[in-house]
Design brief:
The chain has 645 residues and is α+β, with helices and mostly antiparallel strands. Among the domains are: 117 residues, no CATH class; 129 residues, no CATH class; 106 residues, no CATH class. 55% of the residues lie in helices and 12% in strands. The strands form three sheets. It has a six-stranded antiparallel beta sheet. The protein has a five-stranded mixed beta sheet with strand order 10-9-11-13-12, with helices on one face. It has a two-stranded antiparallel ribbon with strand order 2-3. It is globular and about 80 Å long.
Length: 645
């Protein structure tokens, strides 16, 4: 009977998995191909234009019998001389009759290289074909904007409603009924010879894939920023200026010793090594004991491009997180390794800080909830190390709040001196609490209550989403940020169903479907990166050198833009030859000690008799003479030359 049950389950389960993977991969690959459409249906967005110009109160004057007179209010907006900016609504339409926004796909539009009058263009959320932009034009004369690239992604809601939920419930019933056979099958499946061969093929192919990518990749502004911070600042300055950067210091500390080497082969090799090691651990150390899940985790857009090719601190955060997953069940045995990995993770990114804080809190709670102080005595060294890491990241977070917001100004903290005194007092306060708690615990005067598995799981999930929304509000989140949060949530769920082994297969297969949907297979960015210059900055740097514009005695190079391309060009020069007047307190391409905030013409024209090279479309009050243009796959650089005359 058991054999028949097992065969029945396998006959249903294996085809389900295979068909699901093939269908999702094929749909996503077909959708991820770049296609051409056009923007049309331009209409004035009355409500948002009123809101933009702080005129929401005029609605009452144009409301008749409870209805808004849109025609008259539109005339009011277009004839009011005090209104200089309007918000227009638009939508994308398609030449392709099949691959467009529909019940299966959401559309994601490339809004680069739009006409100059279309500012801050953005699409509505969740793959909507509709969008908005700001313009100083009273009317949009064009009926269509042609040659707009777009890609498609599978809609999450539809799959959940029509596919995952009913199939998932059915699988759940099967797993509960035949869980003994399922667990036996899983254990034998991971040890099959052809699975081991597949792992090696996948790993070797991945290394070759990444090597090709980093050889062709041209660093862009964020990567240039990381390199310049490490190259031009001392270790102390890097640590003390975390607030401007927006991430902790660890990545910059690691790459600083290598900054005497050529720019290209170092930063990206270091970053790729981090990710490749993490992929090796995922494949060969049986994290979560599911090859299918690990393979899907590796073959998604984050680990196929964003983390290994774009050299920022996300690859470092990922390897530390994977290592923590690997040793997690031994965290109270290999405690020192676990604590150090946790502390380092906290100092990689704000997401790493969030995950590290959650795990640190539960680790400390477990120790102070033990029946006696013996466990504490054994782990006192590890507790001191962990607390030191927590104090370091506390200082870093306080520094980010101080640099990037006005919150501390409410406490009359308006200078660096005030901040350092405040930070020292906060650190001293928490250190005293920590020491008092240890003394009380050693004398058996304190014991926290134990948390059962369900309560631990619930608190962790709440904390994860608390940090997600907090970071989104304060810092901003993109897919590359949320990726670690998603994996951490899945990992947390997996840990706390450990007592119910028959749920493992269901949870993991549901998880790989979620990852496929949230972070689908997509090679467009990778292919574009190989075919084209990423930003054109290498050619721009060559142009500067070939024309002798890097001669500081004869020329001054000015960058005044909002996309901070100076950070992509500067790493090709040993000196700071570019002055960036568009720099603000969140960006750190230029020397921290010399942030230019003078946006007027005098800054440009009062620099002596040197000729000025400008890397920008406009400079206030100065007529620019067009020289040349460099266009990469993502960004564009215009070069102009002016004199102080």
């Amino acid at each position: 009977m058991k054999t028949k049950s097992k065969n029945l389950f396998l006959k249903i389960y294996i085809p389900f998995v295979i068909v699901t993977i093939i269908a999702l991969v094929v749909l996503q690959i077909l959708g991820s191909k770049s296609r051409i459409g056009y923007l049309t249906d331009f209409n004035l967005n009355i409500e948002r234009t009123l809101e933009l110009n702080n005129l929401m109160n005029v609605n009452e004057s144009f409301t008749i019998d409870g209805k808004l007179d849109e025609e008259n209010i539109k005339n009011y907006l277009l004839t009011n001389e005090n209104i200089t900016n309007y918000i227009y609504h638009f939508r994308i339409r398609y030449y392709d009759k099949t691959f467009r926004n529909n019940d299966i796909y959401g559309v994601y539009v490339d809004l680069y290289n739009l006409p100059d009058y279309m500012e801050n263009a953005e699409m509505e959320e969740n793959g909507s074909p509709y969008g908005n932009f700001i313009s100083d034009k009273k009317e949009i004369e064009e009926e269509k904007i042609y040659n707009i690239n777009y890609t498609l992604r599978i809609k999450i809601g539809l799959i959940l409603k029509l596919y995952l939920i009913p199939i998932g419930i059915y699988l759940f019933i099967l797993l509960v009924k035949y869980h003994d056979e399922t667990n036996l099958y899983l254990k034998s499946f991971s040890n099959l010879r052809y699975i081991k061969v597949l792992k090696y093929i996948l790993f070797i192919s991945y290394i070759i894939y990444i090597l090709i990518g980093i050889i062709h990749h041209e660093p862009w502004r964020d990567e240039g920023q990381a390199w310049l911070i490490a190259r031009d600042l001392s270790f102390l300055d890097i640590f003390l200026n975390t607030g401007w950067e927006g991430h902790p210091f660890l990545f910059h500390f690691i790459i600083k010793p290598f900054t005497f080497l050529p720019f290209y082969p170092t930063l990206h090799i270091i970053n790729a090594i981090f990710v490749v090691i993490a992929v090796y651990i995922l494949l060969f150390k049986n994290i979560l004991n599911n090859f299918l899940f690990n393979a899907v985790l590796i073959l998604n857009s984050m680990l196929m491009y964003e983390y290994p090719i774009v050299a920022r601190n996300y690859g470092l955060a990922f390897i530390l997180f994977v290592y923590i997953m690997y040793i997690y069940k031994y965290r109270y045995i290999k405690t020192t390794n676990y604590i150090i990995a946790l502390g380092l993770l906290m100092n990689t990114t704000v997401i790493g800080s969030s995950i590290g804080f959650i795990e640190s809190a539960f680790f400390l709670w477990r120790i102070f909830a033990s029946a006696s102080g013996n466990f504490l005595r054994k782990k006192i060294k590890d507790l001191i190390i962990l607390w030191a890491f927590l104090l370091i990241i506390l200082f870093q977070l306080l520094l980010m709040i101080y640099r990037r917001s006005g919150y501390l100004a409410k406490l009359n903290i308006n200078s660096d001196k005030d901040f350092y005194i405040f930070a020292l007092l906060v650190i001293l306060f928490f250190t005293i609490i920590f020491l008092v708690a240890i003394i009380l615990k050693l004398n058996k005067n304190i014991k926290l209550f134990r948390l059962n598995y369900f309560v631990q799981f619930l608190i962790k999930i709440i904390l994860i989403y608390f940090f997600i929304f907090s970071i989104k509000h304060f810092y901003g989140l993109s897919n590359r940020h949320t990726f670690l949060f998603v994996i951490y949530s899945i990992f947390t769920l997996y840990i706390y169903i450990n007592k119910n082994n028959y749920l493992h297969l269901f949870i993991l297969n549901l998880s790989f479907l979620i990852i496929l949907i949230l972070y689908p297979f997509g090679f467009n960015a990778y292919i574009d990166d190989i075919k084209n210059n990423f930003s054109g900055c290498k050619d721009a740097a060559k142009y500067i050198k070939d024309n002798g514009f890097d001669n500081k005695d004869k020329y001054i190079i000015i960058a005044k833009n909002q996309i901070y391309l100076s950070g992509s060009i500067l790493p090709y020069f040993n000196e700071k030859i570019i002055y960036d007047t568009g720099i603000d307190e969140y960006i750190s391409f230029i020397d921290y000690s010399k942030v230019y905030k003078d946006y007027n013409t005098n800054f440009i024209t009062n620099l002596g008799n040197k000729e000025i090279i400008s890397i920008d479309d406009t400079v206030d009050g100065v007529k620019l003479i067009y020289l040349t243009n460099f266009k990469g796959s993502w960004e564009k650089i215009n070069f102009y030359i002016v004199t102080n005359n």
